[in-house]
Design brief:
The structure is a single chain. This protein has a 5-stranded mixed beta sheet with strand order 1-2-5-3-4, with helices on one face. It is about 50% helix and about 15% strand. Strand 1 and strand 2 form a beta hairpin. The termini are far apart. With about 210 residues, the chain is of the alpha+beta class.
Length: about 210
């Protein structure tokens, strides 16, 4: 499986498979013109992924912080989800956008530092504790590099599709309410029927 983009460049199968995991969102990332466009699109549509964190970008001189906010996530799940999501983001960076060396450091909130820091230090990353939110800090010099899979035609279509998918997902706030139920009852492993029943009890059932 390959993805043909700018000037018929063929992307390695690994990168294409990683993108395919996230469907339209993944291919939208691949079609972006530059790394900067890619991470901005990734931030804008981050809620289309499997992650529960809320993403934000902060530009600071020669660095960019890709922030992962999880204060809305139950405390007992934050460490597990961070351990799950950050490796995925790192893998996407290496496969789609750049080299691991462009990740300057990983910042972890102090509350999870003892648990999370050793995990990423063992993988060769610099980890720092922060009183702020978790973040992957990237060398800003990477931002203007052209994406090998850039395609303005594909990007125009895929970004429209992402926006429509996001709109439908958030329509009536149902998507957010489903995520809230899944997070709150994660330890129980609720079934689809149990989630639907709880939404119905809250007045959110289907008409």
């Amino acid at each position: 499986m390959t993805f043909r983009g700018h000037r018929n460049t063929v992307v390695p199968k690994r990168a294409s498979i990683r993108a395919a995991v996230h469907g339209i969102f993944g291919y939208a990332l691949m079609s972006c013109a530059t790394v900067r466009d890619g991470i901005e699109v990734g931030t804008r549509f981050f809620d289309l992924t499997f992650a529960f964190a809320r993403a934000a970008l902060e530009y600071a001189g020669d660095e960019v912080r890709f922030c992962l906010g999880d204060r809305h996530v139950p405390a007992q799940l934050r460490g597990f989800l961070l351990e799950r999501d950050v490796p995925g983001i790192l893998a996407h960076w290496g496969a789609l956008w750049g080299q691991p060396s462009e990740i300057r450091r990983i910042e972890v909130a102090e509350s999870l530092g003892e648990r999370i820091a050793p995990v990423f230090r063992d993988r060769g990353f610099l980890v720092k504790m922060t009183a702020s939110t978790h973040a992957l800090v990237v060398d800003a010099r990477a931002l203007d590099r052209r994406m090998p899979t850039a395609s303005s035609e594909a990007a125009a279509v895929l970004l429209r599709e992402c926006a429509e998918l996001q709109r439908r997902q958030n329509h009536g706030e149902l998507g957010a309410r489903v995520r809230e139920v899944l997070l709150r009852r994660a330890a129980e492993g609720p079934t689809q029927d149990q989630v639907a029943a709880e939404l119905g009890d809250d007045g959110g059932g289907a008409a």
